[in-house]
Amino acid sequence: MNVADVIVDVPTMQTNTPYSYLIPDDLKGRLETGMRVVVPFGNGNRKVEGFVVGIGNLAQDKTTTLKSISSIMDLSPVLNNELIKLSSWMANKTYSFQISCLLTMLPSVMKAEYSSTVELIGEIDDKSLANRFKKQQVIPFDEDHFSKAEMAKLSDLKKRNQIKMTYHVQNKAKPKTELAILNQITDFAEVTQEISKNATAQIKLLKLLQKFPDQPLIQRKIVNENAISISAINNFVKKGFVKKIRVEKYRNPYKHQIVLNKPKKLNSDQQIAVNKVDRAIAQHHDRVFLLEGVTGSGKTEVYLQTIQHAINDKRQALMLVPEIALTPQMVGRVKNRFGSQVAIIHSGLSNGEKYDEWRRINQGEAQVVVGARSAIFAPLKNIGLIILDEEHDASYKQDDNPRYHTRDVAIWRAAYHHCPVILGSATPSLESRARAEKGVYDLILLPNRINQQSLPQVTIVDMTQEIEKHGDIFSTELLNDLKQTINQGNQVVLMLNRRGFSSFMLCRDCGHVLMCPNCDISLTMHLDSHTMKCHYCGFEEAIPNICPVCHSKNIRYFGTGTERAAQQLEKLIPEAKILRMDVDTTKRKGAHENILRKFGNHEANVLLGTQMIAKGLDFPDVTLVGVLNADTGLDLPNFRASERTFDLLTQVSGRAGRSDKNGKVIIQTFNPDNYAIKLASTQNYEKFFQKEMELRHLADYAPYYFTIKVTISSLSEHQAAKEAYQVSNYLKGNLEKDTIILGPTPRPIARVKSRYYYQIIIKYKRDQNLDQALKHVQQVSQKEIRKGLRIAIDPEPVNFM
DNA sequence: AGCACGCCGACT
DNA sequence: GTCGGCGTGCTC
């Protein structure tokens, strides 16, 4: 056991494989698989972080001389075998580097920080450079801190050994540690002879060591629990019988004095669902259940009770929710049921807090983990149940490398742990629902709202008939209902899926539309910040008074965002007290909770927001929901546009009438006959599913075909286009005949952050050559990649912009 | 990624 | 003639 296989933190195609390192004697016995290490890599004395993925003996046929591991970064492993296996599966499945997968599975503080220093050894004649070394011989090396001439001088000095570069790998993850001792004795009989008979403390310590010869013993515990003094321990250190080391300090699992909520009584549908899942938990069966329940049907109670069963079975539960549904309301329900056994991972935690929570889970102190996408990698060791709430939600797909889908990872982990998965939704993804149809998943229906509440009454308002009357935002019907609801003391949720005040500026004289200088997208006006903003790259500039092209004063702003809607509504209904909730008002930490708390306390009667208000909110006094423009998602260049619209409308409608009061929903649209809008108004998922399946079948899209999006981008449009055609030609020549290749085409928003994007869509049912062809593409384009080209391979993309 | 090696153009 | 530009290969 003298060699460790290490995945190094060098994310490239060529280094995407384990490298072998010798384990130096002083690290033997301490190094374990799953630990992070610092290793030398490449020329000079460059050091990088790496993950030990295996320990073994040096293969006989290895002729290369191996380098040695420099140091260990962790006191105990941060990865178990399951997660190491998962990372390699994931890398393969998402066409990404294993190191990227490993790093996304862990809290961000585990990614090392790199820096380097230069030490002056000889003399330098260069004046400016000599100045830098005036105060000290060792200075930090930062490439853009030195001029080009100085850099040249430095590399020259280095060649002549006049300076020395040192590379540092900083570990940002600093768990609390405490002193422990590690046994060094091999022959206990011999040592026993050596110790004087009246040294009682030493004899006691020796016996303790003999009992646990291989594990570190915590000094504090030896002193407190065995009544052995520190001086006896230090004596042993002097004699070389033990070595002092630092080990991670384990938190005391605190017992929370919290009144736990009792399980609620289930209706018969819920009971059937719970029973089915329970059976799978008990039988260690990795079954996938699709729990399809209308909004308000009590899915959460099913989750909570099945989680309880996993715990009763001495196993753990993992519950995933979309980030925006991770509201205090939802978290509260889980915490109140399971108390201190719950770990919550949400975006509001600082990196340090996330690390603490992660360690708690890793130490086995949490039995239930709740979190958004990345929580699927929680280091639970004995999972009995995995839940994906709102399984259709787009946020479950990671939009950059590694482009994994949480659902796939969940199913992989469930298979590993032999436990069931619940995919819950009122509007399942077509893929999941189709799988349930085929019997791959087990379909469980919750067709009724709990307590026999009726679904809210939904009215579709045709805005093409309304536009003349009140500007273009509020229809007469919605205004009347708003007034009525507010006067009755009830509350309203209004959704407008567009941020800002106006979505674009148009010059009436020359037709110029103000665009982002870095992206092919118009700038949105924000009154809050008095700027024109780009929603893609964050560019901001002052709001112009005149057209920047023809200098005409005749400029107008079009398109309505949440800001303008709020302003208009204040004018139209003065008694409306409005809370606005969108990316702009929730940026600050805790702002999200704040807004919802205020709304819950009736400090406002209208909650106006973007799609982030559609999910999970449960306010009993909301009796009216208004969708100001149901069309925003419909014309996106995405084959899931209808699905998204149906989902969004169904979700937001579900916010109305959740207690004993009846709810009403008004959907304003310019496409009153659109099937997604019509069917959402009756919450008819089944019919929508049938209709959408027909269309997907006709257009050869999911779930009938798998999709892969290949995006080629570069700062040079020419390079991107050229390479895109080369890639597409290669694929056309190497994929099977019934695989469909669309493109290359410029992406719908062809330029973002000054990069030009081309994309190719591959649609296939089964293609044996696909994997190899795509890997070939990644391999072959290395040259272009060096010149700034990027190739992103995205299996089952959710975003086409 | 980061470094060395090696091959070509523009300069004291 | 040499210096240094960048294209290419390699890292246990």
Automatic annotation (TrEMBL):
Binding locations of Zn(2+) 1: 507, 510, 547, 550
Keyword Chloroplast listed: no
Keyword Translocase: no
InterPro entries xrefs: DEAD/DEAH_box_helicase_dom, Helicase_ATP-bd, Helicase_C-like, P-loop_NTPase, PriA, PriA_3primeBD, PriA_3primeBD_sf, PriA_C
One Pfam family in the UniProt entry: PriA_C
Required cofactor names: Zn(2+)
EC number in record: 5.6.2.4
Domain Helicase ATP-binding, chain residue ranges per copy: 280-446
UniProt keyword annotations, A-Z: ATP-binding, DNA replication, DNA-binding, Helicase, Hydrolase, Isomerase, Metal-binding, Nucleotide-binding, Primosome, Zinc
UniProt enzyme class: isomerase
Domain Helicase C-terminal, chain residue ranges per copy: 542-696
PROSITE patterns in alphabetical order: HELICASE_ATP_BIND_1, HELICASE_CTER
Residue positions binding Zn(2+) 2: 516, 519, 534, 537
Catalysed transformations (reactions): Couples ATP hydrolysis with the unwinding of duplex DNA by translocating in the 3'-5' direction; ATP + H2O = ADP + phosphate + H(+)
GO biological process terms, semicolon-separated: DNA recombination; DNA replication initiation; DNA replication, synthesis of primer; double-strand break repair
GO CC terms of this entry: primosome complex
Oligomer and partners: Component of the replication restart primosome.
Record function comment: Initiates the restart of stalled replication forks, which reloads the replicative helicase on sites other than the origin of replication. Recognizes and binds to abandoned replication forks and remodels them to uncover a helicase loading site. Promotes assembly of the primosome at these replication forks.
Record protein name field: Replication restart protein PriA
Originating species: Fructilactobacillus lindneri DSM 20690 = JCM 11027
